[in-house]
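Please predict the structure of the following assembly.
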Amino acid sequence: MARIVTGNRGQEIGRSVSLRLAQLASQRLAPREYGKIEERVHVLVTGGAGYIGSHTAKILAQAGMQPVVLDNLQRGHREAVKWGPLIEADIGDWSALDRVFAQYPIDAVFHFAAFAYVGESMRAPELYFRNNLVNTLNLLDTMRSRNVQKIVFSSTCATYGNPLQIPITEDHIQQPVNPYGESKRMVERLLHWYGRIHDLRWVALRYFNAAGADPERELGENHDPETHLVPLAIRAAMDPKQPLEIYGTDYDTPDGTAIRDYLHVTDLAEAHLAALRYLDTGGPSDAFNLGTGRGHSVREVIAMVEKVSGRKVPVREVGRRAGDPACLIADATKSAGQMGWRPRHSTLQEIVETAWNWKVRSSH
Ligand SMILES: NC(=O)c1ccc[n+]([C@@H]2O[C@H](COP(=O)([O-])OP(=O)(O)OC[C@H]3O[C@@H](n4cnc5c(N)ncnc54)[C@H](O)[C@@H]3O)[C@@H](O)[C@H]2O)c1
């Protein structure tokens, strides 16, 4: 049956979300003290079987909300969906999406579903424009027809392209240098126009480098193929036959390797709740960087993996990859000031320890 969200219900939900988040923040809400399922705030988590989406579903449940995961499992994992229903469907499938909005009282959407490999996007841009852009248009139109007005979108620092200044602020020019970044930039433009014309309320979170794993070891990072540094360094530490490739040792950085801003996936997940609270308390639609404001070089990450694991990380030095900037660091002052979000788990040590602990557990 179709469900209409009235203005009053919207305000009510806003109040209840803010209250739950405030309670959680002050640690007064024990994770099991939730209301009945039908009373909970429901969030549709597209791509919730993937790395960041699954961690965010857990944080939503801990905050007393109900994640409803929609994922086609092309690049996700069924076993990562543990805190609510999994609808196995594609966001490009209008009728499947419409059924979800009819079945569950969805209050907001966290939109993670996308393809996210820069290299693949340079070989097959059509995949990226179809999945990341066209399918998002489908999602926005279904939301509109079901009167769901809030969305938090997974954007990326790849929308900036090669940085002109470090740290990167949100008003840095957006000139993506690959179709992946371009597709995300285009979705940001969609959000802008749907906001102006159709009253969609949105937050675009421009993640820098997500890393780490659930501290309780229930979830972790498991991409196939894996392209991210922390899991690759851990794999090399566990299996010397798979050395870590270092792309470029002649950058203009203190140790010659590239520098990135690594953010713990739990901090990323919490930022989505902060973004929802921001929208619920009347914050205007906007884009925010998510990073720590500190960078670590490839060699620093390797040294930390060696320290945490007690093993050597075998490496193979290879040339630079085209389009890899020497340094990407976020200025996340705006996220702190306007959404009240700050990273709490993102020391390099905590990132590597949680990733290592999960990998050790999941390898048995
Ligand atoms: N991992 C990072 O460091 C990083 C950095 C910046 C931005 N992002 C963005 O964050 C989001 C999540 O990244 P991730 O690392 O968790 O990726 P992921 O591949 O682990 O998760 C994406 C999930 O979306 C699903 N999916 C893809 N297309 C779909 C479709 N059409 N319909 C239904 N499900 C679909 C996949 O099956 C997968 O489970 C992506 O949008 C990505 O672009 C990630």
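The longest strand covers residues 150-156. The longest helix spans residues 125-145.
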